[in-house]
Amino acid sequence: MNLRLAAACLFVGVLTPAFASANPEPTAYDTRSISMGLTGTTYMERASALVLNPANMEGIEKLGFTLNFTALFTRQIAPIQGPNTDGRSSLGFGPIPSGFIAGRIAPRVVFGAGLVIETGYGSSFDNVICLDGDPVGGPPDYTPTTDPAQCTNPDPQDLNVTFFVGEASIGTSYKIHEKFWLGVALRLPFSKQVADLWQNVGAALDTVQYGQVKNDLSGVGFPSPRIGFQIKPHRKVGIGIMYRMWSRIKLTGETETSILPPNPDGSTRILNSTADWNIPHALQFGVAYKANARLLLAWELRLQFHGAKNQGNLNQTVTANDPGSALQIETVVGFGWKTVWSAKFGVEYRFRKLDLMSFRGGLNVAEAAATEPWAQYFTPPPGVSVTGMFGFGFYWNDRNDPTIKDKYLLDIGTLISYSGTKIGDDHIGTELAVPGGTDSEILCSDDQVVRTGCPGQIGVFTYWASVSFTLQY
User: Fold this and answer.
1) What is the pLDDT of residue 23?
2) Which of 46, 266, 284, 349 has its CA 20 to 30 A from that of 334?
3) Which residues neighbour 374 within 8 Å (Cβ) at sequence distance 6 or greater?
4) Do 298 and 288 meet the contact criterion of CB atoms below 8 Å apart?
5) Phi, psi (degrees; rounded to nearest 5) at 150
């Protein structure tokens, strides 16, 4: 029984941080892009084009680099105490830095490199006394209640999840023709995920037993390409296309839990954890129109194939083992994510009288990857979000060389967003097959280690503050 319980705890330890992984990556690589609705595939001709559309690095004449920092703040709403309860997290913070450099190495060739955190996130539900109607920190023989107000608990706990996913890239652009540019980048993704949670570990053994679970996972994925095209059919029009191939990150780490007995020598029992996490195929297409020397408009569409059978996020393969025994269990964990889209619009206007300043604005309409039957406490909610952005750009010229215009650029931008939905009672007691697997689970029940599809309001408030500095000549 102890070995089976160890496997159950490991199952939870690997499962939990994966649920916290973001749905579509925010692509917060460059402040100018953020301010203009997360566009950039069509017009961004600076070093950060390496991750937006590597073909556009061709716009760099000699040398350029960009340093960017985005502060991501979130606050979540979820029925964490039980169905139809109102749970609110503390303010979560995620730093998302990035840096790029690119230079011309031949008349038609530019080479670039960059390091970016694609998604950074942290969230915490503080002083939780009740989870799913069961007292957090309470006695293991407590009978769960449908009324969280009846939970009596002298030892409330904080539930925390933090993680990031990033990539290191190198790439090149090649000017095939004045009106046709090609770019290719090789990307190496990596991730780290840490969680300290209270979970119904006993569900893996067809019983109810809540306990604390801590885990720390990290890993590196296999290299995969990003390919970009830039077509300029007219001096005022640019057409950008970017394709990113999928990659799988192998996560490994350790898990410990309070409900496991210690090792024979009295030390804490540490379990080994392994899992896979997929970064799916992505495709982005857009058109930019430079109406005149001061006004730029951009329209773009992005698809991320989370619903792909083998390369998406329908599920996650989890391997559990106890180093003190020969026990090893492989489990398929359901996510139920789907292929998603986002439509983007951006505008930039450079003031005539204040030639050193521009205003930027954007609109982003995006569908979340999560679905109601498999929605979790720490994930962005299902549904469609509409987000507005704005920002400013500032330009300085080189006094020693007046022929170089806009050598120094400072960008600032921000957005405030809320997305959420009300999950009804329809999913309670419904038995569904685990997406991509052969097992089934009864939704929002003791049958699940982490309950999914529980009724109540689920949502997230998001605020971004972003700044970047670019030198280019």
Assistant:
1) 43
2) 284
3) 334, 335, 336, 337, 435, 452, 453
4) yes
5) -85, -5
Alpha carbon of 188 to those of 55, 118, 164: distances in Å?
19, 12, 14
pLDDT in tens, 87-97: 888 888 888 89
Cα(100)–Cα(187) distance, integer angstroms: 13
Mean pLDDT of 17-41: 73
- pLDDT tens profile 9-22: 555 555 544 443 34
Q: Please list the residues that pair with 341 across neighbouring strands.
A: 303
Q: Cβ distance 397 to 406 under 8 Å?
A: yes
3-state SS of the chain is CHHHHHHHHHHHHHHHHHHHCCCCCCCCCCHHHHHCCCCCCCCCCCCCHHHHCHHHHHHCCCEEEEEEEEEEEEEEEECCCCCCCCEECCCEEEEEEEEEEEEEEECCEEEEEEEEEEEEEEEEEEEECEECCEECCCCCCCCCCCCHHHCCCCCCEEEEEEEEEEEEEEEEEEEEECCEEEEEEEEEEEEEEEEEEEEEHHHHHCCCCEEEEEEEEEEEECCEEEEEEEEEEECCEEEEEEEECCEEEEEEEEEEECCCCCCCCCCCCCEEEEEEEEECCEEEEEEEEECCCCEEEEEEEEEECCCCCCCCCCEEEEEEECCCCCCEEEEEEECCCCCEEEEEEEEEEECCCCCCEEEEEEEEEEECCCCHHHCCCCCCCCCEEEEEEEEEEEEECCCCCCCCCCCEEEEEEEEEEEEEEEECHHHCCCEEECCCCCCEEECCCCCCCCCCCCCEEEEEEEEEEEEEEEEEC
Residues 6+ apart with CB under 8 A from 319: 274, 275, 328, 329, 330, 331
Cα(144)–Cα(289) distance, rounded to whole angstroms?
60
2: its two tokens = 């102890």
Proportion of the chain above pLDDT 70, given as a percent? 86
Give the pair of three-digit tokens for residue 54: 């590597």
Residue 372 neighbours by CB distance under 10 Å: 21
Residue 168 has pLDDT above 90, yes or no: yes
Is 335:373 a contact under the CB 8 Å cutoff? no
Q: Look at residues 204, 142, 156, 152 and name the one whose alpha carbon lies nearest to residue 16.
A: 204
- The model's pTM: 0.89
Q: Which two tokens stand for residue 223?
A: 């290299």
